[in-house]
Design brief:
- By secondary structure, the chain is α+β, with helices and mostly antiparallel strands.
- It has one domain: Histidine kinase-like ATPase, C-terminal domain (Heat Shock Protein 90).
- 42% of the residues lie in helices and 31% in strands.
- It is built from 4 helices and 5 strands.
- The protein has a 5-stranded antiparallel beta sheet, with helices on one face.
- β4 and β5 form a beta hairpin.
- It is globular, with a radius of gyration of 14 Å.
- 23% of the residues are buried.
- The model has no long low-confidence stretch (mean pLDDT 79).
């Protein structure tokens, strides 16, 4: 399993997509699945950076994103974590895209954090 974690800010989206694409290409993942992952990452990343509320608070304690790529069976798991004071949510379009492209979506509120996890089996 390969893993990367970053703050959810506009500057890091390229790093996440590069990591996911490199991993999926190394396992000869179909291009369609890679494109679906890119669309979902872009949409959710964008929603969180747009809806995070106060820019100063976002800089002090940004939401976190963890991406794991499992080899056997090949799957990508993306987890977004934010403190409870945040206003992040998936928009209608983001929710629709994630629902259509991902195999599993879960949300939980634990220890003062909102945790959204999405998974795609390749």
């Amino acid at each position: 399993m390969k893993e990367i974690g970053v703050d959810v800010c506009a500057e890091n989206i390229e790093q996440i997509m590069l990591f996911v694409n490199e991993q999926l290409e190394s396992f000869k993942c179909p291009v369609k699945a890679q494109m679906q992952m890119n669309i979902v990452i872009d949409e959710l990343f964008g929603n969180i950076t747009r809806c995070a509320g106060n820019p100063e608070a976002l800089e002090e304690c940004p939401p976190l994103m963890c991406v794991k790529v499992n080899e056997n069976p090949l799957s990508v798991i993306i987890t977004f974590m934010a403190l409870s004071g945040r206003q992040e949510e998936i928009s209608g379009l983001g929710s629709y895209i994630a629902d259509k492209c991902m195999d599993e979506i879960s949300y939980e509120y634990t220890d003062g954090q909102h945790i959204l996890t999405i998974m795609k089996h390749m």
